[in-house]
Every structure is written in structure tokens, then in C-alpha cells.
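Step 1: inspect the first sequence and its C-alpha cells.
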Amino acid sequence: MYSHMMVGSNDMDRSKKFYDNLFKSVGGREAMVDPKGRLVYVHNDGIFMVTPPIDGAEATCGNGMTIGFAMESPDQADAWHKAGLEAGGTAIEDPPGVRENPGMNLYLAYLRDPDGNKLCALHRMD
């Protein structure tokens, strides 16, 4: 259903440091930079991009929006979370851990990127 996800940034160098660390922590690569200066990450058949707003206005985060990244294990989610904190992210919500839901338990770790976008590492438990 989804083709890609894109967030805005007011500081592309800061965002590159943050997202490079996040993706490298789970086996991805550093960003490719396209001709418009956008950061492009391709990992596990997904595309994630960071851009300065095309309209020239300030980038803002979406209230109520969360971008979820699939993780292979709780350990990978923890490594992702740690990498994000070390690169300028902010821990939010409950600490990383299992959330029990009817019919499915999830391991979740939440961060805000340096521009305030809400991110989640998600591993579906067996």
C-alpha cells in the first residue's frame, strides 16, 4: 500500500547524522542525497526520505503522526533506540519494552527525531 515516507527538516546536516545512525544501527546504509538535497534511505524494500520543505516554510512535525520501522528483534529495536538517543533524538512515551495487546504482543521503542517527528521501532512478538 505504501510507496515511501517523507519528513521535513530544518537542519539537513543534523537530520543526516540522526537518521544515518538510526539506519546503520539496524544494518542499513547512510543516506543517498538526491539532486534536490533530500536524504534518501532504502532499506528492507522501504524508502524513507528527509527534505527541507519545498514551500520554503519551516518544517513542523505532525501532531498524532507516528512513523513505524519494522524490527527483527527486541535487541534490534533497543540498538535503534540507543543509536537515535546518541545522535540527538529524544526518548518519549514508555521505555522500550513489550506492550500487551489483545491477540498480539509488541515490542516498541519510541523516539522523537531532532525536528520533533515521532518514530517507533516495532517488533511483533511470537
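Step 2: inspect the second sequence and its C-alpha cells, then contrast the two.
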Amino acid sequence: MSLVVEEKPICRSALGQILLECRGQGQPRFASSMEEAIDEISIAKPSVTLVDLFTANYDFQKLKQLVVHAKPGMVIVVDDRVTPAFASLAKWAGAAGYLTKDLDVEAFKHAITTAIDGGVNFPADPSKSSNAQTQPATRGLSARQLEVLGQLALGKSNQEIAEALEITTGTVKTHVHTVLTLIGARNRTHAALIAGRSHASSIVR
């Protein structure tokens, strides 16, 4: 049994149909929020759970909790497009893969099947490349710094970041300053652009 966590009905149906066509997956169940997803997992114990990052409100701590609840089943994250910082955080949270909606259907199904078979479903590790210029600016950031960068990419203020991550605004200011320095960003807007850059061959640590 599988589970789709997606708030938009049309996207929910599309992801459910794709799962139905994957080997060994029966009729999926659905949840429109992370809270509903945890309830569904506790009842049904799905072998595969697809989680839309927007539906998860880009809350990677909650995603990590969901991964723990889902075991021994796996959680695969779905994003609109490749965002290295978010892919890194999904990996940190314990997700089995990070897929994007700009894949065609066959590639998407293949990626899910690969994960079911125990394969890796994250963009390749650029740190293994001999060309340092291909390495992402986010490489080397801590999990918390990546979370802050992810919030910056969403255009959130320090107060909003503090509320989302349950830390003080003073701590947020410190993290923002450190992140800007580490990734070489001129300002918050530049940091958001760096976080949101899509690299077809680029991928996370």
C-alpha cells in the first residue's frame, strides 16, 4: 500500500495514478496535510509515501518525524523543481529520494521503482567531481543552516523564519549572516537565487 501527501486534489490524483502503475503498488491512500499523513501511516503502514514539499510547508523537521513514523516504509519527497538546498535537507531528514514534477511520467515511475528496489534517488554528488566549479555553494552548510537558507529561498522574514524553526530572531540573524558569508551571497535575495538554482547535473551531498 502507498500514501500520497499532497494538498491539491488534481496533483494528488496524478501522483496516485503514477504510484498505481509502479510495480507492487496497490490502490494508494491520500492525505492533504502532514498531520493527516502521520495518522494514515499509523493506521495503514504504507510501504511508499510520496510527500509534496509545498504540502509539507518545507518543514524538514516534520518531514524527519514522518520518516521515523513511516519505517520500515520509505518516504520520497516531491518538489516542483530541483533546489539543491531542499534536496540536501530531504536527504538529511532521511527521505529515500528527491523527485521533481518536471520529470516525464516514465522517468518519475522509474525513479520510484529504483527507490523501492533500494537504489539512490538523489541528484548525483557533485563533491565527487574533479571540477570544483560544479560543486554547489551550499556544500558544507550544517542542517540548521540549510533550513535557514531554505526559508530564505521562500522569501521569509527573520521573524517568520524564527517562528517556522522555533528559534529566536537573534539566532536567525546569526544564522543568516553566517549563511550569506559561507555561500558568498551579497544579500538575502542573492542567497535565495543561489538556493533556488536548478542544475540538471548538479546535486546534493
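Step 3: confirm your contrast with the notes below.
DSSP finds nine helices and five strands in the chain. The beta strands are 2-5, 29-31, 48-52, 74-79, 97-100.
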